[in-house]
Amino acid sequence: MELTVIGHWGAYPEKNEATSGYLIEHQGRKILLDCGSGVLSGLQNYVMLEDLDAVFITHLHADHIADMYSLEFATLILMQIGKRALPLDIYVYCQDLTKLDFCYPEYVNVHPIDLQRTVAIGELTITFAENVHDVPSCAVKVNSEDGKCLVYSGDTGYCQSIVEFSRGSDVLVLESSFYNIQKGLNNGHLTAGEAGEIAAIAQTGQLILTHLPHYGDHNQLVVEASSHYDRQIQLAYCGMKLTI
To answer: How many Cα neighbours within 13 Å face the side chain of 51?
Structure first.
């Protein structure tokens, strides 16, 4: 299983970069976790849009969904000119799919994410868990048939759910929106120290800090996470690639 970080910024992208977007590739299958601002452009450096199998949207904040509607138009055009054969499957975690602005059901199949159901994409199985956030938000787990496991937190505050959901994962891609000094500022996001604590309790194989702030020294995030977690910690960056 291959992970490519398309975007890792919280709130808005720095120039020529992107907010949340993570490409997973395995046995010819290609899925995208979140599709934030700048992701659609960056994604095309790594995969042809007509080859994308599915997209999973963890919640409806713009930095996680901003490019989704442009991807719908891309799918429409690619199918009309014969480059893409099948509609794109889009899975969204929200309370009411009818309030979304998708316009072309013949080109995109929009599905609600059900926390109780597993989605199979080729040899990948995808499951979900509820987060703590100010809008409905879920974490995503991707398991391959060879026993590898990646967990992506989406946006979440500290909660037992994300600890249990991440337990035993090979890679945990975990939001780290705040420095420790900001603890309590927003209960829907994690500090770096909290991220490290979750990784330690869950005994994940390695930790990738993402959804990064636009200020401060990001190396301090690693220092703060490492006060709890003593395995490998990396800062996400646009274009980062990892084999799991």
So the answer is: 14
CA angle at residue 64 from 221 to 234, to 5 degrees?
25
> Which range of residues forms the domain containing residue 130?
2-243
C-alpha R_g of the chain: 17
HSE-CB of 175 using CA atoms within 13 angstroms: 32
Q: Which of 10, 1, 2 is nearest to 153 (CA)?
A: 10
Count of CA atoms in the C-beta half-sphere (13 A) of 46: 24
| Distance separating alpha carbons of residues 235 and 83, to the nearest angstrom | 36
State the pLDDT at residue 78.
98
Give the residue among 174, 173, 139, 165 at the shortest CA–CA distance from 242: 173
pLDDT tens for each residue of 155-197: 999 999 999 999 999 999 999 999 999 999 999 999 999 999 9
> Backbone phi, then psi, for 85, in 5-degree steps?
-90, -35
Q: Could you tell me how far CA 144 lies from the centroid of its own chain?
A: 17
Overall number of domains in the chain: 1
Contact 157, 182 (CB under 8 A): no
Q: Residue 145 sits in a domain of what CATH number?
A: 3.60.15.10
Q: Please say whether the beta carbons of 205 and 170 come within 8 A.
A: yes
